[in-house]
Amino acid sequence: MPNDTASISAEVSNPAYRYGLTQPLFAVIPGIPAMYAKDQASKLMECARYLNHTGVMHGDHRMVAASHHLNTMVRALLDQLEEIIPPLPKPW
């Protein structure tokens, strides 16, 4: 009986059990032009820069932490784009 209770509590504490399977927040989707995705990533990076600057000016560590998380997500999106569309070779 204790094993059954332990397995049930492990399932309930698992986020996938409560919220379903995780999906990437930012992802490259087929059919969306790469330039549009890069433009959106640039806008998100600008938001992260604003959050960081404002957080530092006001001493709000939550804003600074949010900017770091947003930068990490944008970096993942740009890495995904780079896998799909390799950078242009250097001319020299």
Structure description:
With 92 residues, the chain is mostly helical. The protein is 72% helix and 0% strand. The chain has a domain of 59 residues.
Q: Any low-confidence stretches, pLDDT <50, length ≥5?
A: none
Tell me roughly what share of residues is in helical segments: over 70%
Gap between N and C termini: 70 Å
The proportion of residues in beta strands is under 5%
Give the structural class: mainly alpha
Number of strands: 0
Q: Look at the structure and give the mean pLDDT.
A: 78
Largest sheet data: none
Could you tell me the radius of gyration in angstroms? Answer: 20 Å
Number of helices: 4
What is the succession of H and E elements? HHHH
Instruction: Tell me the overall shape.
Output: extended
List key phrases describing it:
92 residues, 4 helices, 0% strand, mainly alpha
Q: What would you say about this model in short?
A:
The chain is mainly alpha-helical and 92 residues long. The N and C termini lie far apart (70 Å).
Secondary-structure blueprint:
Blueprint: H1 2-13, H2 15-19, H3 34-58, H4 61-84
Helix pairs in contact: 3-4
